[in-house]
Amino acid sequence: MTTVFLLSWLIGVCLGLDVRQSPSDLVTNPGDNVQISCSHDRKDYRVMLWYQRSPGDTARKLIGYLYYQEVRIEKPYEEQFSIAGDLGVCLGLDVRHSPCELVTNPGDNVQISCSHDRTGYWQMLWYQRSPGDTAMKLIGYLYFKDATMEASYDKEFEITGDLGGKAGDSVQLVCTHGQTDYRVMLWYQQSPTDQALKLIGYVQHSQIYYEELSREHFNITGDLSGNKAKNGSLFIVDLTESEHSAVYYCAARYAH
Q1: How many CB atoms sit inside 10 A of residue 18's CB?
Q2: Labelling 104: which of 11, 13, 56, 125 has CA 20 to 30 A away?
Q3: What does the pLDDT read at residue 17?
Q4: Is 31 helix (H, G, I), strand (E, B) or coil?
């Protein structure tokens, strides 16, 4: 009997960042070597993380990450995985930590704050690097308001914060793709208490169409004409928790 592995993953589009992985699917045999490539166009992203999610398991397990040219792989994956790349050049994001230095006694509680001015960054990662060690160890990360801790740190560390929008804010979500003959871009909303996707509206060529109840809260822009990469935006006007707390989806298709 021959065992065959099927590997597949998602290509992500999130708030203007088009993350491309190739090939999109692989059918391999035991013992084969496999290379998966990941690329994006953001010049100020210096960390690339690789995760594994097994069939039937919703948990994402961190394989390792690339920081500039420095590779760190989690111990269970060191023998079977290798990561390569170069995320160097210049860093365009000003990230501020406070306080800069701390002198404390054993048993003290310490709070470190992190801030930046990029409104479209919804994930914040915390790392630890011990004296004399070049490795950065992931403590955990914040995604919007949800904190995820590495198991070895969850007893001594706590991550809090809210990277989402505040009441009264205006929020822009950006959707891009390279399918030049797709002339329709649709925006959907999925509320926390409802699994149904509700159509907000769509762009067809350069014409904007809204569902009747969406006009007051949303503004859609985009021009899908021409033979170039497509992009459009969904603006949420005057953010309110009751109306706008949801997951938003962008879809694209041919014009009928």
Answers
A1: 19
A2: 125
A3: 59
A4: coil
Q: Residue 32: count other Cβ atoms within 10 Å of its Cβ.
A: 10
DSSP string, 165-214: --TT--EEEEEEE--TT--EEEEEEE-TT--SPEEEEEEETTEEEE-GGG
Q: Residue with structure tokens 């021959």?
A: 2
State the CATH class of domain 171-253: mainly beta
13-42 per-position pLDDT tens digit: 333 457 777 776 667 778 888 888 888 777
Q: pTM for the full model?
A: 0.42
Closest by Cα among 46, 49, 55 to 21: 49
| pLDDT mean over 202-208 | 91
More confident residue, 158 or 5: 158
3-state secondary structure of 133: coil
Q: Parse the chain into domains and list their residue ranges.
A: 5-77, 96-149, 171-253
Helix (H, G, I), strand (E, B) or coil at 242: helix
Distance CA 136, CA 134 (A): 7
Give me the phi and psi of 3, to 5 degrees please: -95, 135
Asked whether residue 98 carries a pLDDT value surpassing 80, the answer given is: no
